[in-house]
Amino acid sequence: MFKNYFKYRKTWFILQFIIAITISSVFMLDPFMKLTLSSIIYINGLILFWSVLFFIWDFQKFKSNLNWLDHFDFDPPSTLDPVTRKAILRMQETTRQKDDDITKHQLEQLKFRDFINSWVHGIKTPLSAAKMLLETLPYDTAHQNLNKEIDSIEYYINQTLFYARLESFSDDYHIKSHALNDIFNRAFKQFKSAFILKSLKIDLNIEDLNVLTDDKWLKFILDQLISNAIKYADHHSKLTIKTECTNPFCILKIQNQGVGIAPSDLNRVFKRGFTGSNVRSQNQSTGMGLYLAKKSCEKLGHDLWLTSEANLTTATLRFKRPSDYYDVSLFKA
């Protein structure tokens, strides 16, 4: 601690030494000063004595202030000089205001998330009723179109719900082994009306394998990828969906034929609100689906990227092998 104090008061020590040298020089060189060497030593001894007393007192103040900083009591000690004390009090007031603002913002976010959850669960009831009523109508083109629109509403409602939950992800996921086929089938099922209306063909080759993930969040990711693949596929084209497993990864690929992604857009497709130049004229994209899918993958420790060549666009989702999931750093709150 004394070393720190010396650095803090180094200029004072130097000044004290200069004063002592100056006084001694004046007494010795001034011809009108008839002082003996013993008198000069005596005077310097007095200066040294009072200087030592001062620095002992100042060192105690310094130590007291350091102890206060270590424990950071909100009441600054009286040993601080007035300027420093005022500065600390102002900083404390600013910190308290910012803490209050952060707490208020967090409460507002919590209320908003609760409202979204309540709204989503409330609106799903009339949607389910609408679907049940739709089943009583003749199955024709109008029926298919209406069913597709209801599915689209459900899709965007779920997107809103998961967006609200993304910030509190750590409270809303559970990693364990799940059959990839089961999760994919549940995700694909809700897009069957859009799939039929576009007269799409499918080449499906998903191996019977388990992945370590959260089934709810993985289904949401697949919802975004399947929705995009169908939305931007040409009519009467083919979707290719397959898995490939090589240590240490398993890969799921979803490929469509249709509106591709411009090379200049590929490094921006996962940005929030971004819509590619090739699809803006269609007015179909909100720019949120891929952003949410990418963020969710980062939280789960999965990898997601897109490639596009000519009229083929491929979304690749990569899962790490089970042994890699013992690395807790893969999961981000």
Structure description:
The chain is α+β, with helices and mostly antiparallel strands. A hairpin with a 2-residue loop joins strand 4 (238-246) and strand 5. The model is unreliable at 328-333 (pLDDT under 50). It is elongated and about 125 Å long. It has helices spanning 2-8, 10-29, 37-71, 82-134, 141-165, 180-189, 192-197, 215-231, 289-300, and strands at 176-179, 201-205, 210-213, 238-246, 249-257, 303-309, 312-320. The protein folds into two domains: 2-80, no CATH class; 173-330, Histidine kinase-like ATPase, C-terminal domain (Heat Shock Protein 90), CATH 3.30.565. Helix content is 56%, strand content 14%. The protein starts with a helix and ends in a 13-residue tail after the last strand. Helix 6 (180-189) crosses helix 8 (215-231). The strands form two sheets. A five-stranded mixed sheet has the order 2-4-5-7-6. The chain is built from nine helices and seven strands, in the order H-H-H-H-H-E-H-H-E-E-H-E-E-H-E-E.
CATH topology call of the largest domain: Heat Shock Protein 90
| Helix-and-strand structural type | alpha+beta
Give me the CATH architecture of the largest domain, please. Answer: 2-Layer Sandwich
Which spans have pLDDT < 50 for at least 5 consecutive residues? 328-333
What is the CATH top level name of the largest domain?
Answer: Alpha Beta
Structural shape = elongated
Number of alpha- plus pi-helical segments: 9
Average pLDDT metric: 80
Q: Helical residue percent?
A: 55-70%
Looking at this structure, what is the CATH superfamily of the largest domain? Histidine kinase-like ATPase, C-terminal domain
The beta-strand count equals: 7
How much of the polypeptide forms β-strand, as a percent range? 5-15%
Radius of gyration: 36 Å
How many domains in all?
A: 2
**If strands are numbered along the chain, what order do they take across the biggest sheet?**
2-4-5-7-6
Order of helices and strands: HHHHHEHHEEHEEHEE
Largest sheet: 5 strands, mixed
The end-to-end span amounts to: 40 Å
